[in-house]
Design brief:
Layout: H1 3-15, H2 19-39, E1 40-41, E2 44-45, H3 50-79, H4 84-87, H5 93-127, H6 132-160, H7 163-191, H8 198-206, H9 209-221, H10 229-238, H11 242-267
Antiparallel strand pairs: 1-2
Helix pairs in contact: 1-5, 2-3, 2-5, 3-5, 3-6, 3-7, 3-9, 5-6, 5-11, 6-7, 6-9, 6-11, 8-10, 9-11
Length: 270
Amino acid sequence: MTIGALLRFELATMARGRTLTAVAAGFALASLVVALAGLSAGGVVTVQGFARTSVSLLQLVVWTVPMLALLTGAVAGADTHDVEFLVALPVSRPRLVVARWLAHVVALGGALLAGLGVAGLLLAALAGTADATRYLALVGVAVLLLGATLALGLWIGVAAGNRLRAVAGAALAWLLLVIGADLIAITLLAVLPAGQAGWGLSLLLLADPVDSARALGIALFQATTIAGPTEAALRRVLGGTGAWLLAAGLVAWTITPLALAARRFARSDL
């Protein structure tokens, strides 16, 4: 059984539910509200452009995408233990895990693109197409973050074995990635002497896919005023190569948990 056949099966299974429709509608509405808020001043819609409102959309992405991907991936990973009929077919277990991850990337990625696409069309209609290419790059960063956190959630779900532990693990992972890393960065800045925390903060940033995606988005629009301590340290230490390292880090955050999930599932008893 090929990856394509498994992918079609997984997508057909997901399409029977209403989750994807709800996610697409919710993200489109949220993106639309953020776009309107960015374009509004004093209650009147004004021309602000892609760059300004995209910073607000970036904050929406780095908070909601990891939460959605981690929880969805964790549930999907836990549910792999209930697919004995698929495991009985002539298909390797690692392939099944990869197909499940890929199906969720396609489905949730489509919902994400729909939401950001609605916001992008609104911005183009009201504020012109300046910086539109950077906005498209921001969408690419969002998809990279989705793939990485989905893989991490899938690993958590496979390791947990049931939905309750999987959801609890995913919620804890979200807190650590979104809030915990920044708290550690603030602690390092408070403890280490001035000028000596650069490399430590840079490594911390590379070790967190959420902060990596945020830093990439900030770099796209040069929004240095909202850059956190880890983003500022990375620019100071690594300069122009930092963006490439961040992108490579997000890819590594996708491949590594996915490989670990496939290995764990291959060795588990159903």
